[in-house]
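Record type: monomer structure entry
Structure origin: computed from sequence
Chain ID: A
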Amino acid sequence: MNPSSFSSERTETRSHLGLWVTLAAALAYCIWLGAHWLPLGWSDHELAASASRVWDIKHAWLTQGHLPWWTPHFMSGSSYALHHARGFYLLPWLLFSTVTSLDVAGKLTVLLAIFLSPVAMYFCARRFLRNEWAAVLAALAFMLHPQQLNRAMAAEHVTISLFFPFIPLLWLTLARALETNRLRDALWCALTVVGALWTDNKQALVNFLLMSGYLVYWFWPKERRLAWQAAAKTFGIIGVAVVLLGAFVIVPGFTEQSLVKLFHGDPLRGWQETYSLKSLFSLLDRNGVVTLNAREGVLRAVQQRGGLRSQEELNQVRAAIAPAQTDSPDKYAGLVWLAALAITVLYNSRRQNRLLFWTFVALMLVCVALASGVSTVWTANTRLLNAWFGVEGVPLAAKLAISLALAALAVFFWQFWRRKLTTTRKTLIAIGVLAVFLFVPAFSLVSLLPLFKEIRAPYVFLDGPIAFIAAMPLGFLVTDVLDTARWRRHAPSMVIGLSALMVVDFWPHQKPAFESGVPARTLANLRATYEALAADRDPVKVYAFTGRYFHLLGPMWSGKPQVYEAFYNWMCPFGMGILNQQGFASWEIHRTFLNVVSARYILFDKTDPSAPGMQQMLAMYRQNFPVQLENEDFVVFRNDSAHPYVSANSRACLYIGDFRKSAPLALALASKNFTLVQGDKTPSAGQYARVYEEGAAAFAPVGESAAVMLQGLEVSRLDHHHIVVKLAVPTHCVVIIAESYYPFWRAEVDGQSSNVLRVDCGLMGVEVSAGKHEIRLTYQPPRRYTIAIAVSAVALLVCLVGLVFGDRRKGGLPS
């Protein structure tokens, strides 16, 4: 055998070892997690919420034979278009659900994502670092990062968990496309981008923004800038391919974003302040021990002295306890990782890719700065320091811990200055970067960009991307520190040892895999409560007062639609969302709201951890409504004054103007049995009891109105998209259907086309004359959706042809 070929074969064999190590570690890790997590059943987090949609879509597909674009079960009826635009998670979940239960299928979907994450990371790191064991270390660090478990098992963010494998794939395919400028690599990149968008479009946009840092790295060398035409051509191919392949995602998203509530009327600024990084110390606080003790000590001191004495003290107390409420332990970065990164920065003897290493370091700083939200990094951290050293009750151990962290940071900066800032130019650059990191309000600047202004949680820049951006520099520990004559042969054992240390360091984050936090009794009572409601065959609804997501499984057991929810409330039809916001203005308005939306049953979750805040509301319900059923966990009240699913009033009023401002008027008139119809000032306006224009005073019309007795009423729901109502009315009126208004509903009255009216701000209505009628309502999503799906299907076929028969020759610039 030729010696050169033998050497090549031996190198080839060794090159597979790292992949096998990664696969074995990922499989063992997932088996370990699954063995403990799969038998636990439902928790009160978002897995159950996502499962409710999987159940609804699967049930509709099996019984109705088509993919539903509308659901009657959630938010008083809502469109599925935005859901399908980020519905990649349905594919594995539905596949697993054919052989196991709904909850286990969802967990298997998440475990599959955890398994694929290090595999994708291995190939990505191997591409960038050109070193087998560097790729293994980066892959295992990516898999073990706390955010993987936090998203998968603590918060149960299924789409975010599924997005993790796409992060290294995006970087890998973009790098290949820019390096080779080949059609095949450009198409692979486009497919990955579309897959990422379909999995979680918000995460995709955040990662696209951070990937712009790679473009800065790529075009930094002069020779690459001079060859910009080839890169521009590649980006053009990627852009066109993404638009065509992703048409089925893009078209519904842009069509319906103006038809749903999004964050209209919500305290967006307050959310951005709450869900932002309060202190860099949270990145060091393992299991949140220090910040939790500080919080308990401060609250204990406040209680002992009888309360707060000034607004200034209130502000300091809030600053002192804030990290324990939102940051810790979820944002823990890892002491082992920080130590490895510091060693890599300070003690590298060579550089595999100097510019790429500093690109990832810069991106880490960008993630932290963006995650700090509306505050700058300096403001957020000095606020915490002032609070901990100025508020009574902070334990001495907490002050020592943060002082030790500051001392360690000072030592690092001193060593960095001695070893790396060897010229005036380097020193000035470092000072400039640090100043930008500390004092520039990065999130406020990014929120000015289109599609970024409504990000409610700056944490999004830390929760997902940081796992990848933090893992990649660890690979440089192997290439830049250990790849020397002294350490090279010990690199495999040191990679395995460092990975073991990370397992120990991140061990507390496995807690959700061992306990769901929900007693079996509560889950049994949950199902029994909703199954008891199934005895009522009327198409009425349930309003649930709870912060726990497993209540979204209610329609699966009871058949009763739910009025509103916290999970997908941003997808709620605009009118219903505004109506719900206005429905808590006062007790009288609240009762009217429940009546209007046909909420016959109101459920309170008594054992919800947030239940103490609802005790006053619960007491008022006990005084005003009879109890339908009650057990240790839940109480259901019956609202006998709730309107039926189909109703009518003898008189109606017309509203001319922005319907988003009509909710208070609609509820005020509904309490007097008047129907408010949204419309224009036409000759037929004279038939209304009163015409209201936007901004006009909400005086009731002269005279009275009453509910119309509907005779021979028959309501048939053929499927999610078709409703048939047969009835007889004694007078001309507007028939109200207690389902969310959406412009894609079509109506026929006795076979003749009729307008579907927006009534009472958020419901549907159909105008009928006196006599017997058959009303047929049909939901018809825009034809452009079908066209978009067809375009994407054809583009996919063309893309596959390009991948199979495309130019395989290596071209473009060297890496």
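Annotation 1: The first strand starts at residue 70 and ends at 71.
Annotation 2: Confidence is low (pLDDT under 50) at residues 1-13, 810-815.
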